[in-house]
Write a structure and sequence with these properties.
The protein is of the alpha/beta class and 276 residues long. The chain contains 9 helices and 7 strands; from the N terminus they run E-H-E-H-E-H-E-H-E-H-E-H-H-E-H-H. It has 2 domains: 9-240, Alpha-Beta Complex (Spore Coat Polysaccharide Biosynthesis Protein SpsA, Chain A), CATH 3.90.550; 244-275. Helix 1 (19-33) runs parallel beside helix 2 (58-67).
Length: 276
Amino acid sequence: MASSPYIQYSVIVPAFRENGNIRPLVTRIFTALKRIDSPVPAEQTEVIIVDDNSRDGSAETVQALQQEGYNVRIIVRTTERGLSSAVVRGFQEAAGDSMLCMDADLQHPPEYVPTMLAALTPHHTFVLGTRYGKGVEMDKDWPVHRRIISAGARLLALPLTTASDPMSGFFGVRKEAFLKARNLNSQGFKIALDLLIKAHIQPDAIAEVPFSFGVRAEGESKLTGKVMIKYLEQLAELYWYRFSGLLIFLVIFLLVAFFVLVRAWLGPPSPISQHK
């Protein structure tokens, strides 16, 4: 389905073997957008599924939804894989100036989509769905080990950004801010964190919307040991990106300080040695 020229909002959904969730996700998004109190018009919104060649019937489900009048389309990637690169591809293909990313597994409640999209403004160029907002019981339905992993991952990212939940996969960005980002890590695990740093999003440009995680309805979790290792690699790259200049300065400062201390400890050269 061709995108309408009047589209102002794009919802990007990276997916791999999520066919069972696509219909309820899309229908719930547009039901929320069609509510009388929705701040975002449904007719100005598109949904883009970026599928990594699942071959599970996802393309056929999207085609059926199109025939029912839903403004949804699917991009099937056959030569690329990965969550972050799928999100970047979706943002690149989006017709809207306000772009939202969410998971396909229904853990990001579709009913929050209108609020998240409306939070994006020329002043707030980034919106983050946060599990650490007032009144939210963080990851309340997760097992203990998942809570520990989530908290630890967030703690490791705190020196990089003031955002309360940079690990969230439920986030949005204005297109002009997205286009400023350079050298995005398409293999990284958390594209929101990468964008916050590399698009140079200032703290006052971040809007936060508290939400509680839903429960996965279909399919399996994508969290694996390999994914966690990729996240640690991504953190190392972001720390270097953000603090490399400071690290170089500290190394030079320590070398100079060491030289000064050595000279002070050895004392000034004797008059005899000066005239030799």
